[in-house]
Amino acid sequence: MASASFLDYIYRSVPIHKMFADGWGNPTDLIKLIKFRREMVKRDPVVLLNDHCPFIKEAKIIENNSFVIYSGEFETPVVKLLPELVPLPVRYAQFEMILPKKRQANSCPLCIHMAGTGDHGFWRRRKLLALPLAQQMGIGRSCLRYVTDLFVMGVCLIFESAVLLNWLIKRGNWPLGLTGISLGGHMASLAAACYSKPVAIVPCLSWTTASAVFTQGVMARAIPWNTLEKQCTDELHSSEIYGLLSSQYWNDSEKINSAKNNFRAQKLMHVVMDEFTHLGKFSSPIDPSLAIVVAALNDAYVPRSGVANLNSIWPEAEIRYVNTGHIGGYLFRQSEFRLAICDALQRAAAKYEVVSGNVVKR
Questions:
Q1: What CA–CA distance (Å, rounded) separates 72 from 60?
Q2: What PANTHER family does this protein's entry cite (predicted)?
Q3: Do the Cβ atoms of 306 and 212 come closer than 8 Å?
Q4: What's the pTM value of the predicted model, to 2 decimals?
Q5: Distance from C-alpha of 332 to C-alpha of 220, rounded to nearest angstrom
Q6: Model pLDDT for residues 67-82, shown as the tens digit of each residue
Q7: pLDDT at residue 246 greater than cutoff 70
Q8: Cα–chain-centroid distance for residue 312?
C-alpha cells in the first residue's frame, strides 16, 4: 500500500476539538440502535417506512440566468421509529436543491450530496460540486458529543435519503445518485445499501468501514480515549452491549496486559464502528454496477490496510484512485469527483428509466 500523505498528518496536527468528548452515550440507546440496525438492513418495507411520505416544504431562494436554488425541509422519518433518540434540533431534515435553469426541474438528473465531517451548512458542497455540475453538466444536487450521536445521524441520513429519492422519482427526475466526500461518502454508501431501488453511488475518499478511521487513521488523535476507557469499565461493563456485539469481547479484553493503554476503548470502538458502518454488514445496493468509488492512494484518514476490500463486498463496483492523500484529494481533485458523478448517472440513465413513478429496466 502507498505511504500515507504527509499533508494529512500536518493538517490533523492543528489543534481541533475532540470528537465524542462526552463518551459513548447512553448504553440503553446504543443497544436500541444495534437492534434497530439489524432489522433495518433486511429492507423490510414496514421497518423502512416505504409508504411513509412526509410533507416536504420547499421554497425558491436564489435564481439567476444559470441556475435556481431551492431550500426544503421535512420531518425525519426516524421520529416515527425511534422518537426518544432524535433530539429536537435534528427532528427536521433540511436540504438545498440546485437546478440548472436550462433544464426542466422535474426531469433533470439529480445527485444527493451528503455532508462530510465538519461540513455545517451548504456552502462547501454548493461551491465545489453542485454549482459546477449544474452550470457545466446540467446536474442538480441536494459536534458529535457522543459516539451514539454518529449512529443516530447515520440512521437519520439513510431514511432521509430514501424520502428524497422517492420524492424525486415521483416528480419524474432521473437519473438519481448519492454522493459525498469522506464521512459523507460513507453515508452515501450506507444509504444506497439500504435503498430499495437502483441508484447511482459515488462515494469519494471513503472505504468499507469507519472502524479503521477512528482507531488507526489520523482521526484517532481526536478521540478522548481516556474518557472512553473509563466508561468501558464503569458504565458499560454490565450492559447488554458486549453480548450483542461479541461474546468474546470482554473476556478477551480482560486477558490483555493492563499496561496497554485504553485497550478496551479501542477494541470496543473498532467493534461498534464495524457493527454500524461496515458495508459487509449491510445488503448490497440493488445494482452495485452503478457505483463508482473514488479513493485516495495515500489516505491517512481512511486507512485501507487490513480492511476489507470494496470489491470483495461490491464486486461490480468500479474503483478509481487519485494519487494523493485525503486533504489533497478534497482540495485539488474535485473535478475527478464531478466526473465520477456524471459517469455514474449516465450508467443509471442507460440501464433504467422512470415509468409511472417506478424505476424499471430499459
A1: 9
A2: PROTEIN ABHD18 (PTHR13617:SF14)
A3: yes
A4: 0.88
A5: 24
A6: 888 888 899 999 988 9
A7: no
A8: 19
Please state, in angstroms and rounded to a whole number, the distance separating the CA atoms of residues 344 and 292.
6
C-alpha cell at 93: 431534515
Task: Report the relative pairing of strands 140-141 and 110-114 from DSSP bridges.
Answer: parallel
Nearest to 181 by CA among 231, 236, 117: 117
| Amino acid occupying residue 59 | A
Distances (CA, A) of 266 to 101, 214, 241, 345: 50, 9, 15, 39
pLDDT digits (tens, 9 = 90+) for 132-184: 666 555 555 446 789 999 999 999 999 999 999 999 998 889 999 999 999 99
Q: By CB neighbour count within 10 A (0-12 exposed, 13-18 middle, 19+ buried), where does 51 fall? A: exposed
C-beta of residue 241 within 8 angstroms of C-beta of residue 27: yes
User: Where do the domains of the chain lie, and which CATH numbers do they carry?
Assistant: 6-48+107-117+140-249+261-361 (3.40.50)
φ, ψ of residue 312 to 5 degrees: the values are: -80, -15
SS3 per-residue string spanning the chain: CCCCCHHHHHHHHCCCCCCCCCCCCCHHHHHHHHHHHHHHCCCCCCCCCCCCCCCCEEEEEEECCCEEEEEEEEECCHHHHCHHHCCHHHCEEEEEEEEECCCCCCCCCEEEEECCCCCCCCHHHHHHHHHHHHHHHCCEECCCCCHHHHHHHHHHHHHHHHHHHHHHHHHCCCCEEEEEECHHHHHHHHHHHHCCCCCEEEEECCCCCCHHHHHCCHHHHHCCHHHHHHHHHHCCCCCCHHHHHCCCHHHHHHHCCCCCCCHHHHHHHHHHHHHHHCHHHCCCCCCHHHEEEEEECCCCCCCCCCCCCHHHHCCCCEEEEECCCHHHHHHHCHHHHHHHHHHHHHHHHHHEEEECCEEEEC
The angle at the Cα of 135, spanning 132 to 136, to the nearest 5 degrees, equals 75
What's the length of the chain?
Answer: 362
Q: Which residues contact 20 (CB under 8 A, 6 or more apart)?
A: 144, 145, 146, 147, 149, 150, 223, 224, 227, 228
Contact 150, 162 (CB under 8 A): no
Cell of 302: 481512511
